[in-house]
Amino acid sequence: MSSTALLVMDVQNAVVHRYPDPDYLPRLASAIATARAAGVPVIYVGVGFRPGFPEVSPRNKMFGPMAGRAGGGNDDQAMAIHADVAPADGDAIVTKRRVSAFAGSDLDVLLRAREIDHLVLTGIATSGVVLSTLRQAADLDFRLTVLSDGCLDADPEVHRVLVEKVFPAQADVHTIAEWEPKVSNG
């Protein structure tokens, strides 16, 4: 029997602020409501670091500029999940240390413990966390669905190419309105 979870990835205040789309959060909120109504667990994944960013190598092109800076950690309001799609009681929150939701996190352990084998992916950015997580999850033999309008990217053409040409090789791709979660958890 298949068990499904909705992953809401990198929808943190600082990230949402960089991707202004007034329709995105309401769309994502509707996907979260659909999942909850169907009994599908919602798992939030966000990037976070300890104070001083000791996990970040200066060689890392994306995160390297943070290395050695003061601040960081998970208490920073900028890194909190955006209030419009905030976790509910009982939702799992996973902290990752790199782009993929699996990198430096306990996501795989959490999914295996809950016997989840089907992931529904949403998040910011399509070319970042969604792409990296999809590739790693496929290699870990998860069944995958991507909610195309539950993802957002700074470059609309990159988003289009990924959801129309790249992701279908490893995942089913649907809009939020098309997605019908199967109540097979249990």
UniProtKB/TrEMBL annotation:
Superkingdom, natural source: Bacteria
Domain Isochorismatase-like: 4-177
GO molecular function, a single term: hydrolase activity
Cited Gene3D superfamilies: Isochorismatase-like
SUPFAM superfamilies to which the protein is assigned, alphabetical: Isochorismatase-like hydrolases
Keyword rRNA-binding: no
Keyword Hydrolase: yes
Pfam families associated with the record: Isochorismatase (PF00857)
Keyword tags: Hydrolase
Identification of the protein by name: Cysteine hydrolase
Originating species: Paractinoplanes tereljensis
Origin organism lineage: Bacteria, Bacillati, Actinomycetota, Actinomycetes, Micromonosporales
